[in-house]
Amino acid sequence: MISCTTLRSTVVFSAGLLVSGVLLLLVAETAGLPVPTAHLALLAVLGGAVTLGVGFALAIFPWSRHHFDNCEH
Q1: What is the pLDDT of residues 14-28, one digit of tens each?
Q2: Structure pTM?
Q3: Closest by CA position to 17, among listed 59, 52, 58
Q4: Is residue 58 a contact partner of residue 6, using CB atoms and an 8 Å limit?
Q5: In whole angstroms, what is the distance from residue 47 CA to residue 52 CA?
Q6: Closest of 9, 13, 17, 7 to residue 56, by C-alpha
Q7: What is the C-alpha separation between 48 and 46, in angstroms, rounded?
Q8: 34-60 burial, b if ≥16 CB within 10 A, otherwise e?
Q9: pLDDT beyond 70 at 68
Q10: CA–CA separation, 73 vs 69, rounded Å?
Q11: Alpha carbon 71 to chain centroid distance?
Q12: Distance between CA atoms of residues 38 and 21, nearest Å
């Protein structure tokens, strides 16, 4: 069930994945194993985009509108 809290958590989790992916990419520049670290960074960034996309898709469905009517922004 989607709610205001779930949507906020999805956005924060997505931002966390994006930031961790960027930081992992910076670490990959100096790490002893740059290729695996860069792959993890890519998976984190893409995972953040997918998470945000799924949250957006769930939010725009008509059946979810009544869950967001009472949200305080």
Answers
A1: 999 999 999 999 998
A2: 0.82
A3: 52
A4: no
A5: 9
A6: 7
A7: 5
A8: eeebbebbeebbebbeebbeebeeeee
A9: yes
A10: 11
A11: 21
A12: 9
